[in-house]
Design a protein that fits this description.
about 45% helix, globular, 2 domains, about 120 residues, mainly alpha, single chain, 5 helices
Length: about 120
């Protein structure tokens, strides 16, 4: 997986008002990443079996995270939402309601969501 951090408001919010321009920009960004990685990993392009692209607008659409954040909370250890930066917090004040998503820990993202879902499954069984 290739990933680069890009601003939500890049080129007028990815020209989000024009779907054709948005798709072209997303494809252009994806190909640029592949081309740059190819310089470090010769033969990468030929080895790719599947490719897709996501922008901050994609993340916002599917996760509803503000400005397309990929991880839910802030990754800044100085800006803590939880007392321990990497701990997974699945408990809520509501009986039998657990948090099994990226919102269960400070780091969030896919790894955080998997860890939270795992802890929920273990607690339920």
């Amino acid at each position: 997986m290739l990933q680069a951090i890009v601003p939500y408001r890049w080129i007028n919010n990815w020209e989000s008002g024009d779907r054709a321009t948005y798709r072209r920009l997303k494809e252009q960004a994806k190909q640029t990443l592949i081309r740059k990685a190819e310089k470090l990993i010769p033969g990468l392009t030929e080895a790719i079996e599947f490719e897709d692209a996501a922008t901050p607008l994609t993340y916002e659409r599917y996760t509803h995270n503000t400005d397309g954040a990929t991880s839910a909370w802030s990754w800044n250890p100085n800006n803590k939402f939880y007392s321990k930066f990497s701990k997974v917090y699945i408990e809520t004040p509501i009986p039998n309601l657990l948090i099994g998503s990226c919102w269960a820990n400070q780091i969030g993202g896919v790894p955080g969501a998997i860890g939270a879902a795992w802890k929920c499954a273990e607690k339920i069984k």
